[in-house]
Specification:
Helix content of chain B: 40-55%
Largest sheet of chain B: 4 strands, antiparallel
Structural class of chain A: mainly alpha
Shape of chain B: globular
Radius of gyration of chain B: 21 Å
Helix content of chain A: over 70%
Oligomer: heterodimer
Distance between the termini of chain A: 58 Å
Largest sheet of chain A: none
Order of helices and strands of chain B: HHHHHHEEEE
Structural class of chain B: alpha+beta
Number of helices of chain A: 9
Radius of gyration of chain A: 17 Å
Largest interface: A-B, 55 and 41 residues
Strand order of the largest sheet of chain B: 1-2-3-4
Number of strands of chain A: 0
Order of helices and strands of chain A: HHHHHHHHH
Number of helices of chain B: 6
Chain lengths: 173, 200
Amino acid sequence: MNIRWLFERHYPSLVRYLHGRVRDRDLAEDLAQEAFVRLLEKPPREPDTWLYVVAGNLARDAKRSEGRRSRHLGIVSERSPKVEAADPAPAADAAMCSAEECALVQDTLAMLPERDAALLVMRADDVSYREIAAAIGVAPTSVGPLLARAQQRFIRALGSRAEERRSDARASG
Amino acid sequence: MREHPAEGEMQALLDGELSRTRRVVVHAHLLRCASCRARAEAARETAALVHALLRRSMPKVDSATAWDRFVVRSGGRAGKEQRNVRHWASVAAVALATAAIIVTIVRGASRPGPIADAFALVRDAQAHPAKSLLRDACCSDHDGGDVSDDGLLTLSSVGEKVTVVIVYEDVDRSGTFTHGDLVRYVSTIPTGTPVALRAP
């Protein structure tokens, strides 16, 4: 097992996939590192798909812990506002798009069902159908139809979101 | 194929993820069904738009720094594993180089591929998605520079005949073959007929 090759190949997409799930850049990096540590400890037969499955489980556990913590603090929210507010990384890191465009795309992704967002992010990273299927727990043959629908939902949601922003801008201006 | 390919099958075709058999069947259908060709083109445009928007807005990840952190976090085990791999990789590289020399001697002379405009070939393939399948495998380290910035792009015609092979360096780090990249090698085989090696 060439751990360096696996790291180069999967680490960036794992972080982006996890970022889509937990919406916290530091936590996403931490969980991706944890997935690789587990890979070293007990190398699986198919590390490529295994990494996404483990990453997905780690994200789920992290969200549960966050949910419990929020409840203890008496915050009634499905997703911790603190986490979202404390994560300026997507716009700051992505030098290739304007802050407005980045925010629009990220907002739109956040509006979609979790599975759609995960599908789109992984596919944009050229993750194979086999790996995507393992990560979201479906058959590889189901990825094509799910992806096609997710793309259409994304485009529709992006249009609505952009229209909302224009209306807000007109109202405030 | 009488029925029109389903939406998901069209998507899998675009992504190069359709099984070999289905790919041939769907390609053949597209050649004679104008409405499905239009659907394929619309699906390609949607996929390209979503892909571009997401690629541009996704957070950049510094894997080199992350690797260093990972080596520390794994208690040095990651670095040790990598040294073992490097040792066996160098052994394999020597073996491959020897094999390549032997093949060249046996074949008598190497045959360079014809010079072609890689970008024009790709543009043409993108303009006619029903005629040729474009697969862009980026990025790996093909040239031994210890950086995963080399891409291998192939175009195939119906019947899985590879007609064009392009090796490029992903200079602009876009993760796909773009105008900012350096073309290292282009080879075209118009018929897609596999090149058979002469027996020794």
